[in-house]
Amino acid sequence: MTAEELIEESERALAPRFRAVERIAEHNQEKVLKAFQACRVALRHFNPSTGYGYGDEGRFTLGEVFALSMGAEAGIVSPAMLSGTHALSVALFGILRPGDKVLSLSGMPYDTLRGVICGEGNGSLKDFGISFECLDLSEDGKFDMRKAAERIKALGKDLRMIYIQRSRGYELRDAFTADEIGEACSRVRALGFDGCIFVDNCYGEFVEEKEPCDVGADLAVGSLIKNPGGGLAPTGGYVVGKKEYVEQIGKRLTAPSVGNEVGSYAYGYRAFYQGLFLAPHVVGQAVKGSLLIGKCMDALGYENFPAIDKTPADITRAIRFDTEKQLCDFIRSVQEASPVDSYVTPEPWDMPGYDSKVIMAAGCFVDGASIELSADAPVKPPYTAYFQGGLTYEHCKYALKKILGKLMPARTAE
C-alpha cells in the first residue's frame, strides 16, 4: 500500500469522526460570534494604545469577549504574558500567598512549570513558602478521587487551590475532557473545598463544546499562540474566571496599586480579536489532522495517544516510536513540511526548562506557535513524539505524506 492509499483509506474510515468535529466547530463558532456581538465589538477596539493604557477600550473589551466565549465572569488578555508558562506563573502568584497549599489532581505539571513550583532560589512558589503537592493519576490515567479526598481532608483550611493540567504535557495519558474536569470540580466541592479550582487549559480551548469555567472551574489559563489565538495572535496569554480571582491576578500582572487599569499595546489588537474569531475553525482543522495522523500511525503499528477510537480532548497527539532514529525522522519530516524554515534540519538540544535534550519542529509564522503544525520530543526512552496543531487540514495531510515517506519503507523492511 502506498502512502496516498493509506491516507485515502483512513479518511474514509474517519468520515463520521470528522463530521462530529465539524459540528463542535460550528457550535463554538456561534458561541464566539455571539460573544463579539454581545460585547459590541467595533473597529475602534482594534486601535493601538501607548503609555499607561488608561481607558484602553480594546484591551478591556478583548478580556470581556474571551470571558464570555469561555463561560467565565471576567478575563484578562495580554501581550505582556509571553507564553502559557508565563500566564500560568502570573496567575499562580496572583492568587497564592505564603503558607498556602496547592494540590494537583493531575500529577506533576509540564516541565517548564516545575521551576516555577519548586525551584531553589529562583523566586519559585517554594521560595515563598507555598507548597505544591502532586497526586499520581490512577492506573488508567484518570483523577484518583479517593486519594484526593484523603489529602483534601488532611490539608484542611490551608489548602488554597486545586490544580488541574488539562493536556498531557510529556506524559503518556489522554487529555482530560470538560466532563471529567466538571466531575472532579463537583466532587471536590462536595468534600467542602471552597478555594480556587485552577485549570491549565493549554491546547484544550474549543476542542469541545464546553470549557473548564462552564463546568465548575474558577480559573482557566492559556496561551494565545496555541488554540485561542487562531494562528494570528503574535504573542500573549489569557486568564478567564471568577471576577475576584481575575482582579487579583491583574494586580500581579501589573502592580497591586493599579491592577487591570493599566496596560497598553502600541501595535493594536486586531490580530487578537480576529484570531479568537477564527479559533473554532482552526482548532477543528487541527483536530481532524490529529485524527488522520493517528489513524495512519496506528495502521503502521505505532502506539499513539489518544487511542484512535477516542475523541481527542486537546490538539496534541503522542506517538511512541521504537528507536531514537524513528523519533527524529518523524520530527524532521514535520519540519520539512513546514512553510517556514523547511530547509532546516532539527537537532536535539538542551532547551531551557527541560530536563533532557529536546528535538523540535516548528516551522511557524509565529515563533513557537503550537496551534501551527509542529512537533517536539524529549530524546529519551520511551521515544515519544508530541504532535500538535495545523492551521489547515490540508497542511496536516501534506505533512503526513512526508512522514509516511520516511517511516513506511523502514516499517516494511522490518
Topology, element by element:
Elements (H helix, E strand, L loop, with lengths): L2 H36 L18 H13 L4 E5 L5 H12 L5 E4 L6 H8 L12 E4 L10 H11 L3 E7 L12 H13 L5 E5 L18 E5 L13 E5 L1 H11 L16 H30 L4 E2 L10 E5 L3 H13 L21 E4 L12 E5 L5 E5 L4 H21 L1
Helix pairs in contact: 1-2, 1-8, 3-7, 8-10, 9-10
Class from helix and strand fractions: alpha/beta
Helix content: 40-55%
Shape: globular
Give the strand line-up of the largest sheet: 1-7-6-5-4-2-3
Describe the overall structure:
With 414 residues, the chain is of the alpha/beta class. 41% of the residues lie in helices and 14% in strands. It contains 10 helices and 12 strands. It has helices at residues 3-38, 57-69, 84-95, 111-118, 145-155, 178-190, 243-253, 270-299, 324-336, 393-413; strands at residues 74-78, 101-104, 131-134, 159-165, 196-200, 219-223, 237-241, 304-305, 316-320, 358-361, 374-378, 384-388. Helix 1 runs antiparallel to helix 8 (270-299) and helix 8 packs parallel to helix 10. The longest helix is centred in the first third of the chain and has 36 residues, at 3-38.
